[in-house]
Amino acid sequence: MSVASTTHIGSLLDKMSSNDKDFRFMATSDLMNDLQKESIKLDDDSERRIVKGVLKLLEDTNGEVQNQAVKCLGPLVCKVREPQIEIICDTLCSNCTNMSKDAEQLRDISSSGLKTVIASLATTNSGATNNISKKIMQRLLTAIQQGTAAQGNNTTAKKTNNALDLANGGQSQLEILDIISDMLSRFGANLSSFHPQLKQILLSHLNSNRSAVRKRVTTSLSYLLETCDLQLFNEILTTLLNELERKPTSAVVNKKSSSAEANATIKTYVQALTSICRLASQRLSEHMHEIVRITLSFIENTPSNNTDDDQQYDDELIEYCLQALETYLKRCPKETNEFVPKIVDICIVYLKYDPNFNYDNDDNDMSDGQSDDDDGDDDKDQDSYSDDDDLSWKVRHSAAKCIEAVVVTQHDILQTTYYRKIVPVLIERFLERENTVKGDIFHCFITILQHTKTAFAHHRQQQQHNTNNSSLHDDEDSMDTDSASTKNSPVSPLTEYVPLIVRSLGKIMKDKDTKNREGSLVVLTNLVQVQRNILNEHIDSIVPNTLYSLSTTDKSKKSKGQSSEGKSSQTVSKSLHSNLKITALAFLYALLQTHDDSNRFHKHIKALLPLIITHANDSFYKIASEALLVLQELVKIIRPKSSITIQNEFKPFVEQIYECTQNRLKQKDFDQEVKERAITCFSYVIVYLGDLLSSEQLQSCWPVLTDLLRNEITRLPTVRALTSIVESPLNLDLQTILIETVPILSSYLRQNHRTLKMNTLSCLRSMIRIYSKHFNKTMIKAILIELPLLINENDLLLAQYALKLTTSICKIHSNQAPIDKEQIQAILNKVLELIQSPLLQGTALDAVIEFFRSLVPQCISYEELVKLLIKPVYSQQKSSSTSVTASSTLANDAQQQQQQQLVVHKQAFYSIAKSFAALTVANLKESNIFIKKFQDDLNDPKCSDSVKILALLCIGETGKYTDLAQSSSHLQQILLDIFSSPSDDLRTAASYTLGYIGIRNLNSHIPFLLNEIARSQTKRQYLILHSLREIISYQSHENLPQLDEHIDSIWRTLFAHCECPEEGTRNVVAECLGKLTLLKPEKLLPILRETFLTNTQNKQAGSPHVRSTIITAIKFTIVDQPQHIDTILKSYIKDFLNGLEDEDIDVRRVALVMFNSAAHNKPMLIRDLLKELLPKLYNETRVRQDLIREVEMGPFKHTVDDGLDLRKAAYECMYTLLDTCLDKLDMFDYLTYVEDGLKQDHYDIRMLTFLMVVRLSILCPTIVLQRLDRLIQPLKTILYSKVKANSIKQEFEKHDELRRAAIKVFLALQQIKDANKVACVNDFEASIKGSKEFLDLYNTVIHEQQQSSSGFSFNTYNNAEAMDMS
Fold first, then answer.
1. Model confidence, pTM
2. Contact present, 958 and 920 (Cβ < 8 Å)
């Protein structure tokens, strides 16, 4: 350490011994800050002096100085060496175990200091930490044993000296037990030598007379069982269970007996088991059957309605048992599954358990007293039922939480009887008198509604799929099918209870307690989101009850002469009332959005609108924001369509709504969210009610919107509002606003704001399409000038929007005034650049083609535009021909290389060809010259490959619309000759073209292709099969009746090539078979099935090539869109999936790929078969030694794993099932194979399993929490693994990616609730932070996630997708 540092430390130590307490405090604080700096290094003398000074301050007379010294111990033990740490720990342990009467304060402060030291030591992860932790534990155990002995030997002294009792067996013991618990949670595995001793001590103190001691012993015991060996775990658990077995199995306490004392012991043991389950559930799973059985035995003797006066129930014991069952259900759902029916029955009884209250009378009181405003009577009623000794509410609270645990863990609850058992009881208990319990019941019911919503969404998708299938061939009886499916839907049981729900909540919605009203509205909000129109029949009762929460004011405001305390209560009350209003408005918005029959709301408009308008003008921004949402929905209710005449009674409200929204917009100092919603609401008024406004009112709207459009904060919502106004069916006079806004909108196209530009382009396109007559040349020019900069490959979606706008301008003005060529030339140049982009495809390419078609002939001639299109390819041809010299063989080689090198990207050839074909179709008379030119180029040996490829594709694309095979008799032969070309790109283009040139004359073209396939060699067959595939694929886009006549001959030809040894040929054959099967599923699918079964049963005569080809063909029949084949395939797919058990590895691989395709595109095909399929799938994830072989490569031996592709396909399928069939998976079995994947040493499989773990941490966190120790260990192995020094660069990069991915998975696991309480998580985090290399990587990953806004931060509340489905 430097001289300056030594001097500084010496100065601080001098101040720490000063007589001034402020000097001592500040010096200690400065020392702590210095010790936290990484740069500071201490020598031996400085260490001794600092340790001595800090320990001395623990005995300081000033409490603040003592506390600062305790804080200083944390960084100090991280800086000093092991001898000094031992001195610190010995001193603190001595102080903690000092039993003298005068050392009480020192014991307390030393206990805090020791806890601080232990927490700091846990982060260092060094050898010294292990040694010191053992010494601390030894001192603590000695002290607690001595205290116990003293307690037993000094019974007389205890009776006469309370201070001695406290010292020998009281508070000091509690502190020591706290420290032991802390030690076990942080160093449990390192203290294994103390585990037997800890077992004896903790079990002996488990029966202590003091509840505080028992509580701490329970915590310590659970940490001990988390890390101890299995033998000790079983011994302790057996002891606990045996003790419980000997106790009376009933929660009934006889007033004349001593059974209450026995129940105290039972409570302790039940709490101990609960705590153990929270921390070590994976170990407890083997014993869970016995534990649940014993726990149930204490509470299964449930109270009846007529309770005997000589008996009373131990409410606390029932509460603890129900809490235990809740924990068992959440932590070990698989092991407790068989007890769920009994648990549900018991919880239902205890949910009604309220011996001190008669709900029948309360029902009458509530119905009679809803309009009673006498506060005194209300208080009197409440007081008559208040009893501090009544703990029955805790029983009901625990029962509600336990039922919720059942709902969360039983993902198929809608298919079980539990649903009909639980839901009516919860609805009945909505009238619970204790608000805390009522909140739990509401929350439980909301959880059920979320599960129902998820199940119904899945059912609706399947129903829609089936409807689409049936509509493909039969539209009859659609109403009968729909009603039948509704009856069988998951929401059908809920609809039966809707009247009861509405009736029960109707009473609560007028409760004087705002929290209860708010809870009832949240329940209703979740209810309407389950299914549309679910409250159709109850709107007349729901709406008035909701308005009650918006119209009533808090009575506390009316009271007079209140003190300052009363004013404070008014503030709280106002806040509660605001929350109630926000919730009520949110419910109204959800109700209006999810119910389609606007007529049902008409009778309530007079009551609704004045209140909503009042709240839209509220000073509190949250209330105003929600009210504006409701207001815009009410506008649609008043007049759903422009063709509907508005009722006379609603006309006065139009002006009120208009003035409300306009005044809100004119305010300058309101919230951003309110601004945006006010703009949207204002646009709704104009769109739906604009023709009812006077011309002055309508004209006064435009300046307001123009000002908002110029404002940087409000311009985006204003652009969206303008789009809605322009597209309004009312056809309003917008000339004024168009003239003012078009220049502003045009200027926004150069802003660096992508969303703004896209919305602006949409708005301008709508303006031009609907109000083109108001656009002059100046306005058009202002728009066109901005468009070229938007057309590039960097943002194809933006380019697509810009092209659509340009196309609209060209189309409109072709009928009015022609556009100057100069205005459009800049855009055309950018499009000609864009068409060469390798990224251009799909809808963006369609927009380019449509733009080209709009130019001809108004802006440019067909011939001129085609020349510009093909110029990039042909210009290179000319330049290359002039540069070639005939001097030597070297020049010829260079020319051949030039021939093989394409001048533009492959995708650009297709883009140019599609554009040429689209232009040609509209100009067939002028196209002959180019078709002939392309054919001549194919025959010209001097033409480069690029020119020939373009010529081929242009001919092929044109062949889709006109028969070229017959118009040129030599064209087919020319294409067949090109199949002999050495260029792969040229052969592929020729194959593509051969498929399309005769597509308009299949009667002659198909026989020609089939004949060529029969007589050609394998390589040529492959290319002609590609041509045939193009024809079959085109059938899905455009129906070709001629193809039906040739299906049989095509089918025979394809089957003849199923056994081709070339895998590429078999894949093309399979695709053709699959797409043909889609055309005639009733006829062809049974043939595929029969062939596959015959080939499978007779394996000697059968061929694995045939089986793999058929399975691949089935994969091509499974597309993401509904098809007629789906219903038939569902009954056959099981036979094809038997390929998962085939002896041939390739057949199993393609069967897995087909399984994955079905799970992704059509999960309904395999959902019911998963019980049989999953074991086969899991079997393919194992590493098989018989598939691993060594290959000699010169002097080296290389290991080849033939089963790798099989395992990758299996894990990919498992990952897909998480998204589509989660409710059908046994997550414990699933996780076992995920854990195996984490341990495999292949990069791809590890990365796949990383993704699966992250997904699982969101979908079923409860189950993942139980397996954290098994999941963390592979992550630790990956993090600590090293790459061989002589490895290639790619190996180092893959290793770095694996480590980063492991950190990301760990961050996801940390987000699970209670994960921070698991020791392995804390240990892994400590080991990461203990290494600079790992810590830097850890911080880098966190920073990257924050930058990309994709960190693992999930809000699962009110989110059915992220709900715990375990």
1. 0.81
2. yes
